[in-house]
Fold each of these.
Amino acid sequence: MTHFASLCSSFVYVQFAQGAVLDSILSAFRSICGEDGVLLGEAVREQHGKDESLHRCCPPDVVVFPHCVEEVSALAKVCHNHQLPIIPFGTGTGLEGGVSTKSECAACLCDSSCLEPGVTRKALNAYLRDTGLWFPVDPGADASLCGMAATSASGTNAVRYGTMRENVINLELVLADGTIIHTAGKGRRPRKTSAGYNLTNLFVGSEGTLGIITKTTLRLYGLPEAMVSAVCSFPSVQDAVDSTVQTLQAGVPIARIEFLDDVMIEACNRFSSLSYPVTPTLFLEFHGSEQSLKEQVSTTADITQSNGGADFQWAQHAETRNRLWKARHDAWYAALALRPGCKAYATDVCVPLSRLPQIIVETKEDLIENRLTGPIAGHVGDGNFHCLVVVDPNDPEELHRVHLFTDRLARRALAMDGTCTGEHGVGLGKRALLCEEMGSMAIQVMQGLKDTLDPNNLMNPGKILLPKAL
Ligand SMILES: Cc1cc2nc3c(=O)[nH]c(=O)nc-3n(C[C@H](O)[C@H](O)[C@H](O)COP(=O)(O)OP(=O)(O)OC[C@H]3O[C@@H](n4cnc5c(N)ncnc54)[C@H](O)[C@@H]3O)c2cc1C
Ligand SMILES: *[C@@H]1O[C@H](CO)[C@@H](O)[C@H](O)[C@H]1NC(C)=O
C-alpha cells in the first residue's frame, strides 16, 4: 500500500447579505485569495450552482477559489463571523443536488469561491502512469478526489478494490469555524489502527455538511500484470445474477462485474456503435498474473455456461478492453440519447446480493406498468444498480410518475434490508428516505454530530438531514 495526498480546492460560499456588509465580506475574501480568487460573474456562478441531477435552484452569489488550506481556513472564519453558509464544490458531477443552494433561496446572494481545481481521479492516474501504481475507484464521471471522498463514491472496480470508504486513510479538513484538523493525525498512514473513534470514516460520505475536505490520503495499488475483459449474454436477469454470486462464492477475485439489462444494452449498442445481443448482459474484467488470469477466466466461464451464458467475447488487447469499458462508462449518455432533450435521474439502491434478481425483476415490471423509460446498469457484484430514468423535465405529470417510481424502488430496497443509496449520497432528494432507512434514534445521533461540529448550520445546510422542525 502506498498513498497520495491531493489538495482539493474549489468551493462555493452562499451568502445572504447586502450593501455595506456584502462589500466588507467581499473585500475580506479578496484579501485572502486575491482579486482573481473571488468571482461574481453570472456564468461562473451558474456553473457552481448545479450538478448533474435534476435539482435546480438559484446560483450562489460568489465563487471563491482558495489556493491552500490556510486560505480555506481564513475564508471559513470570515463566513463563521458573518454566519454565511458554505457549499463546497468539487467538479459538480454529483447526482443528488449536493451543491445546490436551497430551493427557497429565491432572493439569495451567494458567494462561491473556487481557488484551484481539485485533482480528479483521471488526473491522479495520469500522474501515476509511470510509477506502476494506480487508484482504482472510478465513478463514471471524472470527479474530484475530495468530492469522491465527500460522497463516498465508488464505481466498477469496487467489487475488488472497495469504495472511497475503504481507500481513504486520512483527511485534512477545515471545520465550520475555520479549525484545521487531520482525521487520523497529521501525516499518518498506518496500515491498521485501533486509535480511537474513526473520524476519517465520519467525514467520508458527509457531503460537505461537516467540514471542507482539503486533502485526502489514499490507498494506491500496483498495476496488475495482465488484464482480460469479457462480455456475456444471459437468457434472464436471474441467470446473470446467479453467475455473479457463484463467481464471487468460488473466490474468483474478479475486478469488475457489471450488469446491463436489455434496454441498457440496446441504448449502448446505438450510442457506442456496438452490436451485442439485446438480452441481460454482464461485462467482466479480471486482473492478475498471466497464470492467475487463466484460472480466473476458466472458473468464471464454467459458471456462466452452467447458467445459460452465451456469446462470450473475450478481449485482452487494451484497445478492445478500453472500447468495452468506455461503452459502460458512457451508459449515462447512451440512456439520455434514447430521448433527446430529456434529462436523466439515476436511482442508486443497493441490496444484499441474494435479493438482487427479485428487485431488478420487480423494478422492470414497475417501469413498464408506469410507462417509464429506465435502462438499468448495475455494479452487480456489490448488489448496487442504477435505473437511469429518462424524463422530460418540462412535463410535470411525467416527473410526478418518476418521483413515485423512485420512492417505490427505494422502499422496495429498504424492505429487502438494503439502502436507498449505494454510492451517490443523500443530497436533497433522499433525506426523507434516510430517516426511514436509519430510524429516528440513529437520525438523532447524526443530528447531534452535526450540531456539535457545525452548531450554526453553515456547512452545506439542508443536505442529508431534513431541516429541524421550528
Ligand atoms: C455520468 C456520471 C456517472 C457517474 N457514475 C458514478 C458511479 O459509478 N459511482 C459513483 O459513486 N458516482 C457516480 N457519479 C456521481 C459523481 O461523479 C460522484 O458523486 C462524485 O463523487 C462527485 O464528485 P464531484 O467532485 O463532482 O463533487 P460535487 O458534485 O462537486 O459535490 C458532491 C458533494 O460533495 C460535496 N463536496 C465536494 N467537494 C468537497 C470538499 N472538498 N469537501 C467537502 N465536501 C465536498 C459537495 O458539497 C456536494 O455535497 C456519476 C456522475 C455522472 C455525471
Ligand atoms: C477508518 O475509516 C477509513 C475511511 O472509511 C478507513 O479507510 C479505515 O480503514 C478505517 N479504520 C479502521 C481502523 O477501521
Note: DSSP finds 17 helices and 17 strands in the chain.
Amino acid sequence: MKQKVLVTGGAGYIGSHVVRQLGEAGYDVVVYDNLSTGSPKSVLYGQLIIGDLANQDQLYQVFAQHQFSAVLHFAASLSVPESVEHPLDYYANNTRNTLNLLRCCSVMGVNRFIFSSTAAVYGEVAQNPVTENSPTQPINPYGRSKLMSEWIIQDYAAASSLHYVILRYFNVAGADPNGKIGQLSRKASHLIKAACDTAIARIPKLQIFGDDFPTPDGTGIRDYIHVEDLASAHLDALRYLQKGGESQIFNCGYAKGYSVREVIARVKAISGVDFPVVVTPRRPGDPACVTACADKINQLLDWQPKYNDLDQIVSTTLAWEMQQ
Ligand SMILES: NC(=O)c1ccc[n+]([C@@H]2O[C@H](COP(=O)([O-])OP(=O)(O)OC[C@H]3O[C@@H](n4cnc5c(N)ncnc54)[C@H](O)[C@@H]3O)[C@@H](O)[C@H]2O)c1
C-alpha cells in the first residue's frame, strides 16, 4: 500500500519540489497550505487542502480523514528583515503553529516528523564550516522562532514515540531543471533570484546589503544548495525514519561558501548582462559568513547531491525566472 504523507507548505518553493519528488517516488501526498506565499499550480502531485495551520479544528479534521505515516513541515514565514519588524507574527506562524501541528500528531498517533529548519539558528558563527553541534545563537526573530520549534519537537520526542529529522537548510536556490516549478513567491528576496531578476530587467538594480563584513571582498558569504538536492534529502530522511532511524539533526549545504560579489559575477557571466549593482547598508540580523559541514547527512543518509555547482544553481534559476 502507498504511504500517505502530509506536507504543510507544499505549495511553496521548497515544499513543491519535495511534493514532486514524493509523487514520482510513489507516495500518496496531501498538501496543507494557506497559499499566503504558495501557489496551487506548484502542486504537481496529490491533493491540495487550503487551510491555515492556526486553524486547529481544520487540521484535526485533515488528520482524521487520512492515515498519515509521516508529516513534513515546511509552512512558515521566512523573511529575516520582516521578522525583525514583526516578531510576534513570526513566533505565531513558525513556533506556535509547529506546536499546533505536533498536537495533532500526538492526538492522532503520527510519529514521524520532518522539519524545515535553517542555518539562521546558528547566528553569528565563530567557526566555519558549521557542524550540527556548533552553538545555536540566532540573531534574529526568524532564527529564534525556528530554534524554539526545534526545541519543542525535541522535548516532545523525548516524552513520546515521535521520531524526527530536523533539516537545517543553508541558502536554497535553483529551480526544477524541467522548468515546471520554481520560486514563485513575490516576497522572496533571495540573492540568486534577485540577481537573475535584475539580469532580465525585472528589477532596475541589485542591492548588496553591506560590503564591510570581515570577509575577503567585504560581502557576506553563504553556502548555496540547489532545491532539487535539498528535496532529495527529504526523501532520504523519510526513508531513514521509515526504517526506524533515530531522531537526528542534519545540516543541508555543500560545505562551500560564495560571497555576494562572487554570486553576482556568475549571474552576470551566465546571463551575459552587466546589470547595475548598488551597495547599501547591512540589514539587521545578517551574519558575515555561514557555511555548512555536511559530513553527517552524507554519511548517515547517504545523501547524493547532483547539482552541487553554482553555475547549475544560477542557470536553472535564470531559466525559471525568464519564463515567468
Ligand atoms: N528558502 C530558503 O532559502 C530557506 C532556507 C532555510 C529554511 N527555509 C525553510 O523552508 C521552509 C519552506 O520555505 P520556502 O522557501 O519554500 O518558502 P515559501 O514561502 O515558498 O513556502 C512556504 C509555504 O508555506 C505556506 N504557509 C505559510 N504559513 C502557513 C500557515 N500558517 N498555514 C498553512 N500554510 C502556510 C505558504 O503559503 C507557502 O506555500 C520554511 O519553513 C523556511 O523557514 C527556507
Note: Residues 191-222+255-322 form a domain with the UDP-galactose 4-epimerase; domain 1 fold (CATH 3.90.25.10).
